[in-house]
Amino acid sequence: MPPSSPVFAQVMSCLHPQAFARCAALHPLRRRPRGLSVFDHFLALCFAQLTYRESLRDLEACLNARPAMKYHLGFRGRITRTNLAYANERRDWRVFAAVAQVLMRRARKLYLTDPQEPELPGMAFALDASLIHLSARLFPWAAGGWRKATAVKLHLLLALRGNLPHWAAITQGSYPEVKMLDELPIEPGCFYVIDRGYLDFSRLRRVAEQKGFFVVRSRRRSGFAVLESRPVDKSVNLRCDQTVELTNPHSKGSYPEPLRRVRVRDEEHKKSIVLLTNHFTIPAWSVAELYKRRWQIELFFKWIKQHLRIRGFFGTTPNAVQCQLWSAICVYLLVAILKKELGLTQSLHGILQIISLHPFEQSLVKELLTKIEVEKDEDDQQKLFNINNI
User: Fold this and answer.
1) Which one, of 72, 87, 81, lies nearest residue 34 by Cα?
2) DSSP secondary structure string, 37-91?
3) What is the torsional sign of CA 305, 355, 104, 282?
4) Can you tell me the distance from the alpha carbon of 105 to that of 286, in angstroms, rounded to the nearest whole number?
5) Tens of pLDDT, residues 301-343
6) Can you tell me the mean pLDDT for 234-256?
7) How far is 339 from 279, CA to CA, in rounded Å?
8) What is the CA radius of gyration of the chain?
9) Which residues make Cβ contacts (< 8 Å) with residue 307, sequence separation at least 6?
10) How many of the other CB atoms lie within 10 Å of CB of 83?
């Protein structure tokens, strides 16, 4: 990317146009678009995410405020509210989902070099889901489900190394989370950390049969018989490390093999947590630490809801909601890739804030961030100087 390219174009350069074209070819349009191409539609939604646009009218006004810059941003079609609304309603959201998968694979390769504690496995993922609430008046198709909430549900598999999405799916809010274990791509030798809402022994057996390892929190009334007990270090809040087999006839029929049971004391909440896993060689402390790291996916959901545009939507159709949610995931991955490739030290939130203020500026992102950091340090020194003179 040449130095004269705008900041927004430098961010989007993390996705090669040919990679996007291959994703678009998987779900071709019925006819050639006249005004707004599929790539222009993707760029517009990413621009809205990066600059916190509130509506399609707001997005149109911002992009057309500097018409000479649109070409350098990457746009080739006409950006109008009508074109954007039509694209949100008619363009297939699966193109954006395919682009997100491409970015996930690229981000995973970049973050494989991140340091990892030697006691923890190299590849571990956390699976969870989060409701994204919608207006019952504007989105009647999303009504029903858990507590009759009007919402869609974002299912996510988060890589605990780098805190990056590895796989995602978006369903109706009433879709049971445990059924996602049937759709989950299992990689041999990887750990999958899940909460007790996913405790289904027949589905967990599928994970084990595909050479995957799971760490799941057990329910209170899960019957088991102890086959073997091993000593534990109680100074790190471990209470037991056992090999058990299930005694409930239905559970044992679904999972007849032995399981490992690790009980750990949660001093913060003053309660014990029982974990089940099908891996018998890693230390018991590592099993407990893996489950503790599951909290990273909760922080991811909180981050993406606070800092990206997924609470207010540009369209009311299911396709428009899917397009906007997938574009938010793509923007998160683009910023994470940019941070790794440029060796930036700022947090993702800090990078996102600076990009949102300078999308049209024609300077290198790394130099822009360095310049702002230097100015910030100088301001802090000046404030300290003024305080010392009081």
Assistant:
1) 87
2) -HHHHHHHHHHHHHHT--SHHHHHHHHHTSGGGHHHHT--S---HHHHHHHHHHS
3) negative
4) 26
5) 999 999 998 988 999 999 999 999 999 999 999 999 999 999 9
6) 92
7) 35
8) 24
9) 349, 352
10) 20
β-partners of residue 277 are 215, 260
How far the first Cα of the chain sits from its last, in Å, is 49
Query: To which H or E segment does residue 129 belong?
Result: strand 124-133
What is the percent of the chain where pLDDT is above 70?
92
Is the torsion defined by CA of 320, 321, 324, 326 positive or negative? negative
Dist. CA 13–CA 176, nearest whole Å: 37
Going by C-alpha positions, the residue among 47, 45, 42, 44 that lies closest to residue 24 is: 42
Nearest CA to 104 out of 333, 301, 297, 323 is that of 333
Q: 100-141, pLDDT tens digit by residue?
A: 999 999 999 999 888 777 667 878 999 999 999 999 899 999
Both tokens of 133, joined, read 């609430």
Instruction: Tell me the CB-side half-sphere exposure of residue 380, using CA atoms within 13 A.
Output: 6
